[in-house]
């Protein structure tokens, strides 16, 4: 049936939803005093063209189905809409009639319009409140970041407009705080603001907001806009004001920081920037991932908020932040958005048939604006991702001393600039000498690698640098992706055994320093060494290939084994006692890196034979079998007892990885003098700080 326009005035159409740009969104129509949506059944580009023209755009470039911009609320006004494309208004097209549909809001249709306005088009209903800010009114608060309290303002034309607070609820505040990167909201002292706002002229662009509290952006809430010619008053109300509570890592007040803890059984891994990553959850002491079936912005927001960030900007599927290892604990997570933790949401426990790691869910969270990227810059590089580091201290810019400049410090610089990971920490930057900044103003920088900015790392109070010439200033090369190596812990446990190997078979190993020092005093070639043997399988689960830092011209030929070693020290093998000190010397193994095997659909790219390229491809692993030389710890001198076997990959952080916390593997180890048992082999932090002893690093 054809629909007659319901009133004499033109039908109102608007775009809504999130995430979207101003020329796309869920289509909403205003009929009989309320906004409603259109169902996607029979929807076509012709329908989209009619709607885009009604919205003041010249045409449509596409349309969307299945509530791509989020589910609408209220009525579904139209269904089975069939336009020819030339109609003036959507209500001139065929359909089932107003309010007659068999759809749910899961089928809300959207359009993507060409970003070109019809010349002279007036009274556009296009909602554009993409940009929202808090304007602080207290002088102190203006200087301090993040801004957590103030008048809510939305970008309007070339300026900023306010929102009338009549009917404003704490749910609206929750949404505003979430989209600005804050997990919680606080009550605000309205009387204080009332006095201030009475002296200011407000322009009210939005008249009422009715969020449910689970939306991830104000644009996703039902909104009423001020009529074009109506006086922009807000009688009986004032401009909406909100106060938010930042997550602990963004707090200035350290007392509060200690009280507010973020979740300890949920974490993000593999993200290049703050507040993004693959979602991992902890169960029975083992971390696992979440499958992406039905993964939504609501579930992603629960994760973001419990980790001290705001609501989610994106709920990513298909292992966009790299594939995890180990168990997959959850599938079809269906959070409503109010839950305190993802563990409180309904989900299915899964079996391995349901999901693979190619379906690991990830998130990008809203984080508060801290202004940290404006206190640092990199200059002189061939691209925006590399250069000499310059920092601002007070009002002065200067360089950083490169003595002790390592991957950890460079990682912090790249993170602070929003450029991902550091591929290389550079100690000489004469070839990037393009800046007129010559003074060195920071030295002795020592970071843990997790800081948000260089100023949060330890550094000398007064600058002291042996090589203070500008050409020795610190530099970085950043990258959006990095490798991530992880050892297959169960395989070590399954393959361990003891071998008494005759010395006449160990000449090669002795040459490569794979035996403990007492072997030198042995009566060669008689006698034997007792070896703890196991297989190591090292997976690259990152988003870039792992390649040795050294170019092939400096690789070392090992005649005994007949191949080149591309990394001088690639793993540490150690046997430790309970307090972390070594009982067997262990050794530092240098390897030839190659792809032994790969997961389905990935082809091998690196091999050691014939001076081949060395490395480990994403999705592949390098296997060192228990029966190859040096794949052991010499325990000839070890007494029976309980020990810890520790293997650390890439121990000196020589090659950049997105995550160094999974480079160590530890096993509990029982040795009775004849046999050995390993149990509880797991990936985790390496033993560096011994209990009861101070870490003796000099800061």
UniProtKB/TrEMBL annotation:
Q: Which reaction does it catalyse?
A: N(6)-acetyl-L-lysyl-[protein] + O2 + H2O = acetamide + (S)-2-amino-6-oxohexanoyl-[protein] + H2O2; L-lysyl-[protein] + O2 + H2O = (S)-2-amino-6-oxohexanoyl-[protein] + H2O2 + NH4(+)
Post-translational modification note: The lysine tyrosylquinone cross-link (LTQ) is generated by condensation of the epsilon-amino group of a lysine with a topaquinone produced by oxidation of tyrosine.
> Which cofactors is this protein said to need?
Cu cation
The lineage's top-level taxon is Eukaryota
Q: Which cysteine residues pair off into disulfide bonds? A: 39-103, 52-113, 83-93, 211-221, 291-355, 304-365, 335-345, 447-457
UniProt KW Nucleotide-binding keyword? no
Q: Which GO terms describe its biological process?
A: collagen fibril organization
Molecular function (GO) terms listed? copper ion binding; protein-lysine 6-oxidase activity
Where does the protein principally reside? cytoplasm
Question: Which keywords label this protein?
Answer: Copper, Cytoplasm, Disulfide bond, Glycoprotein, LTQ, Metal-binding, Nucleus, Oxidoreductase, Repeat, Secreted, Signal, TPQ
Q: Which GO terms describe its cellular component?
A: cytoplasm; extracellular space; membrane; nucleus
Which top EC class applies here?
oxidoreductase
Transferase: is it a keyword of this entry? no
Please state where this protein is localized: Cytoplasm; Nucleus; Secreted, Extracellular space
| Assigned EC number | 1.4.3.13
Residues in domain SRCR? 13-114, 132-245, 266-366, 376-479
* Function (record text): Mediates the post-translational oxidative deamination of lysine residues on target proteins leading to the formation of deaminated lysine (allysine).
Q: Which PANTHER family match?
A: LYSYL OXIDASE HOMOLOG 3, LYSYL OXIDASE-LIKE-RELATED
Q: Which family does it belong to?
A: Belongs to the lysyl oxidase family.
Q: What is this protein called?
A: Lysyl oxidase homolog
Q: Which species expresses this protein natively?
A: Dicentrarchus labrax
> Which gene is this protein's source?
loxl3b
């Amino acid at each position: 049936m054809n629909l007659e326009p319901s009133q004499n005035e033109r039908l109102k159409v608007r775009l809504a939803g999130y995430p979207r740009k101003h020329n796309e969104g869920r289509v909403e129509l205003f009929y009989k005093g309320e906004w409603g949506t259109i169902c996607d059944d029979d929807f076509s580009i012709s329908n989209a063209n009619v709607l885009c023209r009604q919205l003041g755009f010249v045409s449509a470039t596409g349309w969307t189905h299945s509530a791509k911009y989020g589910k609408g609320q209220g009525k579904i006004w139209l269904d089975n809409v069939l336009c020819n494309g030339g109609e003036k208004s959507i209500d001139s097209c065929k359909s089932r009639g107003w309010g007659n549909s068999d759809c749910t809001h899961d089928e809300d249709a959207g359009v993507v319009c060409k970003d070109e306005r019809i010349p002279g088009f007036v009274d556009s209903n296009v909602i554009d409140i993409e940009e929202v800010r808090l304007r602080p009114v207290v002088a102190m608060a203006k200087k301090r970041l993040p801004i957590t309290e103030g008048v809510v303002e939305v970008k309007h034309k070339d300026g900023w407009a306010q929102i009338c607070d009549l009917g404003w609820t704490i749910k609206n505040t929750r949404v505003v705080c979430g989209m600005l990167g804050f997990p919680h909201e606080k009550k605000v002292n309205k009387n204080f603001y009332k006095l201030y706002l009475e002296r200011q002229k407000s322009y009210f662009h939005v008249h009422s907001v009715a969020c449910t509290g689970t939306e991830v952006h104000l644009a996703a809430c039902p909104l009423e806009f001020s009529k074009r010619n109506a006086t922009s008053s807000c009688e009986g109300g004032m401009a909406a004001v909100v106060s938010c509570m930042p997550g602990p890592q963004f707090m200035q007040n350290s007392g509060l920081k200690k009280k507010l803890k973020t979740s300890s059984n949920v974490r993000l891994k593999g993200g290049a920037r703050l507040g993004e990553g693959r979602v991992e959850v902890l169960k029975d002491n083992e971390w696992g991932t979440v499958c992406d079936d039905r993964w939504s912005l609501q579930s992603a927001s629960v994760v973001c908020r419990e980790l001290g960030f705001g609501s989610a900007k994106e709920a990513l599927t298909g292992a966009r932040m790299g594939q995890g290892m180990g168990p997959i604990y959850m599938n079809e997570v269906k959070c409503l958005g109010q839950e305190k933790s993802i563990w409180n949401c309904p989900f299915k426990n899964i079996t391995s048939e349901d999901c693979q790691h190619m379906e690991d869910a990830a998130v990008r969270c809203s984080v508060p604006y801290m202004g940290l990227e404006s206190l640092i810059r990199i200059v002189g590089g061939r691209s925006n991702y590399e250069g000499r580091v310059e920092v601002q201290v007070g009002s002065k810019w200067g360089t950083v001393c490169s003595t002790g400049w390592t991957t950890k410090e460079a990682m912090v610089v790249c993170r602070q600039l929003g450029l991902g990971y550091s591929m290389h920490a550079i100690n000489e930057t004469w070839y990037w000498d393009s800046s007129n900044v010559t003074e060195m103003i920071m030295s002795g920088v020592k970071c843990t690698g997790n800081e948000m900015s260089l100023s949060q790392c330890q550094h000398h109070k007064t600058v002291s640098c042996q090589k203070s010439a500008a050409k020795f200033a610190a530099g970085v090369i950043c990258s959006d992706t990095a490798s991530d190596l992880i050892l297959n812990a169960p395989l070590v446990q399954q393959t361990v055994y003891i071998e008494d190997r005759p010395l006449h078979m160990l000449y090669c190993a002795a040459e490569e320093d794979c035996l403990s020092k007492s072997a030198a005093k042995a009566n060669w070639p008689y006698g034997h060494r007792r070896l703890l043997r196991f297989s190591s399988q090292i997976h690259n689960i990152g988003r870039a290939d792992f390649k040795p830092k050294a170019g092939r011209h400096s690789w070392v030929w090992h005649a005994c084994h007949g191949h080149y070693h591309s990394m001088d020290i690639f793993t540490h093998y150690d046997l430790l006692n309970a307090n972390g000190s070594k009982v067997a010397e262990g050794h530092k193994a240098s390897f030839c890196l190659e792809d032994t095997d790969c997961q389905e659909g990935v082809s091998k790219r690196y091999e050691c034979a014939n001076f081949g390229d060395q490395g480990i491809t994403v999705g592949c692993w390098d296997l060192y079998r228990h029966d190859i030389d040096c794949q052991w710890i010499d325990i000839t001198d070890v007494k029976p007892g309980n020990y810890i076997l520790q293997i650390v990959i890439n121990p000196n952080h020589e090659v950049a990885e997105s995550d160094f916390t999974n480079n160590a593997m530890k096993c509990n180890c029982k040795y009775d003098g004849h046999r050995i048992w390993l149990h509880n082999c797991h990936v985790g932090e390496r033993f560096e700080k011994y209990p009861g002893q101070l870490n003796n690093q000099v800061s």
